[in-house]
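User: Can you help me understand a structure? I only have the sequence.
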Amino acid sequence: THTHTHNVGRTSAHWHCCHCRSHCLANERCCCVDRRACRPLRARVEQVLVAQPDVVVLYRLANLLRFYGATISDLFGVSEAAPSDSEADPGTIPASPTLVTLLSDLHALALKVFFDQLNIRANALLVNVEPPPEGLEAPAELEHAMDLLRNVLSCQDVYADRGAQHERDLDKILTCILDPLLEMCTISASRLDKVNAAVYIINCVYQIQSTL
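Assistant: Let's start by predicting it. Here is the structure, written out as tokens:
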């Protein structure tokens, strides 16, 4: 019995040693991949952002970066915002937070560029506001803005986690587009008499509501 217990102890110790060795090796490989991936990833994303692509592409990129940041964080058991010395769960490989932090930083940068460009597009609605169409239907500028909003919101359907960040982004996007859009409609309607102005505003609001 003593010999059997001794052998079991040696086997357990050997397994533990092998497990720790493989754990450390996996961690080293992960950190190596982490370091090698960061520089080209940062360079490529910044290259795309400097080119100032369409706002829909910018928002799709921001959501993609957030999605992969969350996915990698979950995969290696580290928090997206965790410092480098944070402790991972015992059963996970403690990945270096370098890549996670980079993805978080790039997401924030892409989101900032997106909102900057979206503000430029939205505020352009207030430049040279046209009179209402003769039929008092919603103007073409409003329809274009609603197409843009629809395309932007479709990016959330693909990548968003429907959490608090999703709600904050949605509120900010709607405010960014709808405030200048409604102001444009109001300025345009001011050139009409009260009855026609009311009809025109109702048509504009209905078009907006149909999109939302």
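Now, to help you interpret it: The CA atoms of residues 129 and 187 lie 7 Å apart. Confidence is low (pLDDT under 50) at residues 13-20, 22-30, 81-96. Let me know which part you'd like to focus on.
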